[in-house]
């Protein structure tokens, strides 16, 4: 007999699934298997959306990806792997400090060591990279109450402080078509998470021209051709579980 789950458990399972799905959009890969994984996830979202905005955006994303199997990879390249001047950064450090591998990475490292989860060896970006952070949150949400306080800290101190600016940059990019709809799909989820954790949306800060200031960092030039096999489950591409854990590279 199947065990009935509580309403809160059902919500956490749904949150874990959505975090995992969104992580796939921002995890670098040329593995065509990711397309099927994303399309399956979009079907779930279309059938069980948070609101009409999410549903409509998910339908657009699915239609575009089905009509052009290479659109996801081509647009990912143009947005996130473009020459320095046009490349959209995906780290919390860059959006909050103007350069990579800053305080937000250190904060993420502190959060990570409180769990058995680690960045996989294949995932070359920093720990405050959005793809990793979303995967990490997917794992924590799947644990339910166990990491509830830690989830709130990661959301409040990492995701919440830069996600609006990040999605806005995507929406306004001349190279964004598919990802503009992905950003639209993510907005209701971020708003839901703010309600869930009782966290306020950050106030809009005056824009600085220094946003182009970038310090050199190890993974600025991402190598083409690096790929990861997408396993069953929406968030396993960049997380490894190690228990017990003594340290983090």
CATH uppermost class: Mainly Alpha
Number of helices: 9
Q: Major sheet, described briefly?
A: 2 strands, antiparallel
Q: Which radius of gyration do the C-alpha atoms yield?
A: 17 Å
Mean pLDDT: 85
User: Span from first to last CA?
Assistant: 44 Å
Share of β-strand residues: under 5%
Structural class: mainly alpha
User: How many β strands by DSSP?
Assistant: 2
Helix residue percentage: 40-55%
Oligomer: single chain
Under the CATH scheme, which architecture would be assigned? Orthogonal Bundle
List the helices and strands and how they pair.
Layout: H1 7-25, H2 33-47, H3 52-67, H4 71-80, H5 92-97, H6 103-112, E1 117-119, H7 130-142, H8 148-172, H9 178-197, E2 239-241
Antiparallel strand pairs: 1-2
Helix pairs in contact: 1-2, 1-7, 2-3, 3-9, 6-8, 7-8, 8-9
Structure description:
- A two-stranded antiparallel ribbon has the order 1-2.
- Mean pLDDT is 85; it is low at 209-237 and 243-249.
- The protein contains nine helices and two strands, in the order H-H-H-H-H-H-E-H-H-H-E.
- The protein has a single domain, classed as Orthogonal Bundle (TorD-like), CATH 1.10.3480.10.
- The chain is mainly alpha-helical.
- It starts with 6 loop residues before the first helix and ends in an 8-residue tail after the last strand.
Compact description:
This protein has nine helices and two strands, in the order ααααααβαααβ. The chain has 249 residues and is mostly helical.
């Amino acid at each position: 007999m199947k065990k009935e789950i509580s309403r809160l458990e059902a919500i956490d399972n749904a949150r874990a699934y959505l975090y995992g799905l969104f992580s796939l959009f921002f995890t670098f890969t040329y593995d065509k298997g990711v397309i099927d994984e994303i399309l399956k996830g979009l079907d779930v979202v279309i059938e069980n959306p948070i609101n009409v905005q999410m549903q409509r955006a998910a339908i657009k994303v699915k239609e575009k990806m089905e009509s052009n199997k290479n659109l996801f990879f081509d647009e990912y390249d143009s947005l996130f792997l473009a020459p320095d001047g046009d490349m959209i950064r995906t780290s919390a450090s860059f959006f909050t400090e103007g350069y990579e591998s800053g305080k937000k990475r250190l904060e993420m490292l502190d959060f990570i060591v409180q769990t058995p989860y680690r960045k996989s060896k294949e995932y070359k970006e920093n720990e405050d990279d959005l793809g990793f952070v979303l995967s990490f949150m997917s794992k924590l949400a799947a644990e339910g109450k166990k990491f509830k306080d830690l989830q709130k800290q990661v959301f409040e101190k990492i995701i919440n402080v830069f996600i609006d600016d990040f999605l806005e940059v995507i929406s306004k990019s001349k190279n964004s078509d598919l990802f503009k709809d992905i950003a639209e799909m993510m907005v209701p989820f971020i708003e839901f998470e703010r309600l869930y954790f009782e966290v306020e949306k950050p106030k809009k800060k005056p824009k600085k021209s220094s946003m182009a200031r970038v310090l050199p960092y190890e993974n600025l030039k991402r190598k083409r051709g690096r790929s990861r096999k997408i396993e069953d489950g929406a968030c396993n591409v960049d997380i490894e579980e190690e228990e017990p854990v003594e340290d983090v590279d």
